[in-house]
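Memo to structure team: turn this sequence into structure tokens by end of day. - J.P.
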Amino acid sequence: MTAPKVTSILAEWIVAVQDDDIPEEVRREGVRTFVNWVGCAVGGARHETVDAALKAVDAFSGPRTSGVLGREERLDVLHAALVNGISSHVLDYDDTHLKTIIHPAGPVASALLALAETRPMGGRELITSMLVGIEVECRIGNCVYPQHYDRGWHITGTTGVFGAAAAVGHAIGLNTTQMQWALGLAATQSSGLREMFGTMTKSFHPGRAAQNGAMSAFLAEAGFDSSLQGIEAPRGFANVLSDKQDYGEILDDLGTRWEAALNSYKPFACGIVIHPTIDGCQQIRDEIGDKVGAIRSVQLTTHPLVLELTGKTSPKTGLESKFSVYHAAASALIERDGSPTAFTDALVNRADIIALRDKVKAASDPSIHEASVVIDVTFEDGSTLRKHIQRAIGSRDVPLTDEQLNDKFTRQSELVVGEAKTGEILDAAWRIETLADAADVARRAAVGPVRSAAE
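Reply from structure team:
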């Protein structure tokens, strides 16, 4: 399909969207997305990956206008967007657009909240711009998925840069031509490789997408031009980075069908394809109790994608363990855990976890849905137990409630900023649409005296 006006039509829509154009049920999901993102950003704030990022970039910061959630450091807008994007993704606990496996909020919300501290905007305005950005990145993702992902591109990074550019461009009031430039600038910076999964660099992808997307909008605002067909041109994003180009996925029902309404939230801090296994193993532990010590073997039957993405049999670090369905099964059976504490360097190297992990085997079956798993447990006495998870908790079929989102937020945030501060941040995040100044959330998430990382 040739669509010479894809970038133009998309830019016109981005510029035109007003607060009231977005249905209330979509806005409500947007607030849930924002709450989840804030919790993940605070929860990841003290990870060694964030420490390393701050150590690297602090000396290069411009005016220190914008905070790093869950920390005391302040950076310029672009570097704050980068670090908050890293922090919000480093635990692999963030939101997921299940049709494409994009994690939508990281690139978009990280850029917008950093912007809000230097160019004031109301909370309702922030949510509108965030939903516009999420819509853009997910529709572009739909256009090229799964071939783009199968080539080895990390789709959160490659499409997230479009989302951040659209969101920031909407927030600062770009005109249609400027928005086309911003999308073109985003297209030429689209990157992120799946080879990096299991390392610090995976979380760098949404952070860099936030930073580069915001820069794209700022450049366009200043008159820095680009191709007006950055998405659909023969040598543009879709044709260079994918064997599939379904431009109807970008343009059809634009403004009436909202991808943002399909967002989901992880109950477990790892790749989403592992979630059915954790859900099932936790249920098994509830049934067998201390009999977990009498397990002889565990057989997982999953979709091939599960083993392609999470087939690390002997992870050595917490980050690697997020891509090991074997570790996840063992941790869920022994500790009944799938939170960030299940994916630490200490736990992945603990003797009892390793011993049970070595008893876990996995086989792929293309007839099984990606969101399903069959778990067969054999005990030392020869007895067996089977658990078939059709859809895991946290999926669109079994979504997290607001109360479960609160619990998820609290469990990770309290480890970083304590109980009182967690309650304050959580309350502000839920009230985002009523706030006259959206940056109030960032200020409440600051910990300790405001100073730079170098001080």
